[in-house]
Design a protein that fits this description.
Layout (H helix, E strand, L loop, with lengths): L2 H25 L5 E3 L3 H12 L2 H21 L13 E5 L3 H4 L6 E5 L4 E9 L8 E3 L4 H6 L5 H20 L12 H23 L1 H13 L4 E6 L3 E7 L27 E6 L6 E6 L4 E7 L8 E10 L5 E6 L4
Parallel strand pairs: 1-2, 4-6
Antiparallel strand pairs: 2-3, 3-4, 5-11, 6-7, 7-12, 8-9, 9-10, 10-11
Length: 326
């Protein structure tokens, strides 16, 4: 793990912990609540305790703004149907992300069969970092449909060759020593990826388009809380209609509309002038970009996608809260 990666992990986990702390702080006098102290909680707490006091304050301040707003649009956070209706707060392990659940912090009321989740982002908007390798069947993993032999026939020799280079150099060989690796490695892999996605799409168009977004953006409804220097943005991915529910006669202060998943892919192609990025354009205003890159400076036998949402439905609820540091 590189220093940048571990730094990103520390700040990300610290922000998750700050959100949990603020939920607890603001709700504990109003309702019965319980914090689930699992291993993910301990990791996040450890990360938070390792950042400077100034950073801790910054995370807590951003989290405070976000939680106040979430309490306005989620009345069930602060309303229960009785003493036994306990609100549980939990930090989820990163394992959940592998199955398309991108939520980090969860608030659950078992008695109301209700939960909301928050995906916490510190200074970055990427939706996912998925890998490609000789053994990863991205079709099955992302979409529940097996990838073809033709795809693996193209990519396996390329990844196997990278494995060989890594082995023969005792894992010392750098990407920069491979010459023009964009055209010899990235381009053929991306072309195979494009072709495969097109083939899978032809077989079952509606399912592939919606599954792609559900896996990459999140298959459970959630709020994305993106912390920046002086603001915090809240987005409501209300795909299944489980967010923003009233509690009896208490209605949310703002409406977060249900957003439609795509039903078709209109285009899959390289980004203009790029040999590292593929753009997938879909109906209902969804556009994703897939940028392939090597996660380490040393040659490895897998590559990483940095996946971003370039365009999302106009109905997607977004609100930016400006934070004043007094």
């Amino acid at each position: 793990m590189t220093t940048a990666n571990s730094r990103q992990m520390t700040t990300g986990k610290s922000f998750e912990y700050a959100l949990l702390v603020q939920f607890e702080e603001k709700l504990k006098d109003k309702i019965n609540l319980e914090v689930i102290k699992n291993s993910s909680f301990e990791i996040a707490k450890g990360c938070f305790e390792n950042v400077s006091g100034a950073e801790q304050n910054e995370y807590l301040l951003s989290a405070s703004f976000a939680v106040n707003f979430l309490m306005d649009i989620e009345p069930r956070l602060s309303n229960d149907i009785g003493k036994s209706d306990i609100l549980q707060l939990e930090i989820l392990s990163d394992q959940h992300g592998k199955s398309g659940d991108v939520r980090d912090v969860l608030a659950i009321r078992l008695l109301q069969k209700w939960e909301i989740g928050v995906s916490a982002k510190n200074n970055h908007h990427a939706v996912k970092h998925s890998r490609l390798s000789a053994s990863i069947d991205f079709g099955e993993k992302w979409l529940g449909v097996k990838t073809s032999k033709e795809y693996f026939d193209v990519v396996t020799p390329i990844f196997k060759n990278l494995e060989k280079i890594k082995k023969e150099s005792n894992a010392k060989k750098k990407w920069s020593e491979l010459g023009d690796y964009h055209s010899t490695i990235y381009v053929p892999i991306l072309k195979a990826f494009i072709k495969e996605l097109q083939q899978l799409y032809k077989k079952d168009s509606t399912k592939i388009a919606s599954s792609l977004v559900a896996y990459l953006v999140g298959n459970k409804d959630f709020y994305k809380v993106i912390k920046s220097k002086n603001s915090v943005e809240i987005q409501a991915y209300n795909i299944n209609g489980t967010l923003n529910l009233p509690f009896k006669s208490t209605t949310p202060k703002y409406k977060t509309p249900k957003i439609p998943l795509p039903t078709k892919i209109t285009d899959i192609d390289f980004k203009k002038g790029s040999d590292t990025t593929v753009i997938v354009t879909m109906d209902n205003d969804w556009t994703l970009s897939f940028r392939i890159h090597n996660a380490s400076s040393k040659v490895e036998s897998s590559l990483k996608f940095d996946i971003n949402l370039l365009k999302s439905p106009k109905k997607l609820f977004k609100n930016t809260l400006n934070i004043s540091h007094d």
